[in-house]
Each structure stands twice: as C-alpha cells, then as structure tokens.
C-alpha cells in the first residue's frame, strides 16, 4: 500500500532537501535578514496540498535537523513547524478557494507567527533584536510564495500527484 505512494514521499523529501540547502546557503550579512524561510514555505505547500500526509513526528525531526544545521536554539524550528502545520491544517479548506495573492497574505500570517515564535525563543536565549526586523523573512516569504507554489504545482502535476481533499 505504501509502495504506490513512494514517488510522492520521494518528491516531498527532495523538495525539503532543496529547501534546507537554500536555508543554509551562505549570503552576505546585510542580505540574510531578507532570506525567506524556504523549509517552512515548502512544508506549508505540502501540508496545503496533501494534508492527510502530514506527520507531526516528521516535522519535529525536520525541525531538529534544521536546528542542528543552522545552529539555532534546539527546539526553535520544531516549534515553528508544528505551530504552522497546525494553523495550516485548520485553515487549508478555506484557503483553497483563495486567489494566489490571497494565499500570499495567508502565508505572510503563517510565517509571521512562526517568526514571532523564533524571536521569542531567541529572546529567551539572550539575543536581542531591535524593532520589527524579525518580520522581514515573513514578507520575503509572502513575496516569493506565488513563484514557489507555481513551481511546486508544476512538479506535482508532472509526477501526477493528485491533491487530497
């Protein structure tokens, strides 16, 4: 039974792997604040398209891997991923009827809530950020969402992965 879904899981794994590579790709310091959280965006997309395939344990492990890879406080990314996946699972039915620009606003709210959690976790660790600069990745994620969703939609259709209801 799980063998017929193997191409789906392989595609999800590969897109998450590419997202991790994009998250750790070195950028100059002045541009790092504008980097969208690619792993979070890809996770939002796959939860949005295949909600029954969402595994909280897998998101927890992915978040821990991301914490170790990026060097953030342990537990920050799993908390972000699980909160966003919960919010995404609660609202994906309504969002499916939205236009792409409305989806971008939805993604802005999801990523902003995740960034707020990350800001809180980093503040507990003693790191201080001034102003609302921690929300810039949410804005960047919302801006690149239409292109990313279109690219992942094309990949999903190419491999004939149907959207779950």
Keywords:
mainly alpha, 165 residues, 0% strand
Describe it.
By secondary structure, this protein is an all-alpha fold. The chain has one domain (3-158). Helix content is 72%, strand content 0%. Helix 1 packs antiparallel against helix 3, helix 3 (38-49) runs parallel beside helix 5 and helix 4 (56-70) packs across helix 5 (76-95).
Count of separate DSSP helical elements: 7
End-to-end Cα distance:
19 Å
Question: How much of the residues is beta strand, in percent?
Answer: under 5%
Taken in chain order, the helices and strands follow as HHHHHHH
Q: Compute the CA-based radius of gyration.
A: 16 Å
Q: Nutshell version of this structure?
A:
The chain has helices at 6-24, 29-32, 38-49, 56-70, 76-95, 100-124, 136-158.
Give the topology.
Elements: H1 6-24, H2 29-32, H3 38-49, H4 56-70, H5 76-95, H6 100-124, H7 136-158
